[in-house]
């Protein structure tokens, strides 16, 4: 009956005289405020209720409520993952608040748009919106909203690996929240600040005294978050704060304290149904117990973690845990169990290696097939070009026979036309040899030629290597015609997403390589994530009902003086790791190109 009451309320508003309009606006506003307070509990219900209020406000001619309902609707849709619809709702809200000249709501909308882009992995766009939101809130003198935006900016810098800047923004936000006493905001910001401090402490070449200071402050922040989440009765907040605090204790060398905390984390994770956090807690318990020589405890925790890893089919974790169990059993004086675990770990390792070899073999097979196709295509193009030239030569000779004896100027024109024809045929042949016929992109030869001519590797650049996930299964289940359609559509979406200064090639089979001019790793990761989303955002219309296609992406950053092939190899390693970790994801090469270049020169 709740829906009937809502619609009866809207009908009464439509039939009321103009004198009751202010009361109606107040009712709409109160309902929207209630919806927004509970939006994280059930975003789907919140979206439906916001649409109902939007419809009623439009009928009543209430422009402000229309804009506010669009804003709340956009937030709900963003939480639900429907970011295309969320963006449209935010745009409608922006137009409404701009017409009403409400600067505070425009500043808030900028932050909402930043959250949406952050969720999509567009960290550069997210940062742009957040900084503009912060500028507007500071101009309005709204310290609390400015602090919320500073916390968002800190998260962007943390995700980009710029931990010192993340710490700067999180500190500023926390100081404001503490001055006005907003407990939930204090807890969330303290948690994020603690994570940034801990990450900064792990940087290379960090002085021991500075590292100890950062870890101590990180522990203080996590305890602060823990106390507040406990008081507010937010179990997932308590779980995250405890898990982070355990890691900090371990980094400080206090494994005993870390184990005590992780035992609580494991129990709480099981209570709230968070199997991922439970599995991580069990693995750390096994490692820390083993490090302290508590071998029976280490084996017990490893067995529990192994059971979870088997339920989630996580092969790398299973192999690691089996090895830990073998070591624990051996030191406990149980050689038969140690041998059994070692054999199972070795068999699993061979299975993982076989899968890796299969991926590599498929890649080499694609390279060979591509090379053979390139050679065949080149021979075919050359034969076609020669036939074309012969036909043109005969035509020119016939014309020459007709105009023999005519003015010398005619001969000059004829010779010029013949030379131009040969040059055009040569250019067409070169283009065909350097182009993939299915996608219209460069082939491997064409991209290498472009790299050599463009000088792109004279500055900073990124190599992005994409591979269509499960492509063999697509061919096996739907046939090679569908496979070709998937390759062609994937190429079209990738090319459409790139900037004019970037370049793309079909590197082999279902693999594509892009060269991007970038300034840093964050910009490269954002661009790679846009490429991944462009492929995955909607099905490919290759079969009735569509076919969902995803790509795994490896990214490597190169700079002046480093070989292009080294960058490609680093991106290839990152791509293989993305495949191992579950596919449909972007990974940055874990080894810097400079290190690879030095190793190559040393070899």
Describe the structure.
By secondary structure, this protein is mainly alpha-helical. The chain has helices spanning 2-15, 21-37, 43-60, 63-80, 83-100, 103-119, 123-140, 143-159, 163-180, 183-201, 208-232, 235-251, 255-272, 275-291, 295-311, 315-331, 335-403, 408-433, 444-454, 471-478, 480-497, 521-536, 564-580, 593-602; strands at residues 461-468, 503-508, 511-516, 551-558, 586-588. A 5-stranded mixed β-sheet has the order 2-3-1-4-5, with helices on both faces. A hairpin with a 2-residue loop joins strand 2 (503-508) and strand 3 (511-516).
Secondary-structure element order, N to C: HHHHHHHHHHHHHHHHHHHEHHEEHEHEH
Strand content: 5-15%
User: Care to count the β-strands?
Assistant: 5
Molecular shape: globular
Biggest pleated-sheet summary: 5 strands, mixed
Q: Widest sheet: strand order?
A: 2-3-1-4-5
What structural category arises from helix and sheet content?
A: mainly alpha
Identify low-pLDDT runs: 1-25, 592-603
Rg, alpha carbons: 31 Å
The tally of helices reads: 24
Our measurement of the CA-to-CA distance between the termini, rounded to an integer number of angstroms, reads 77 Å
Portion in helices: over 70%
Chain-averaged pLDDT = 82
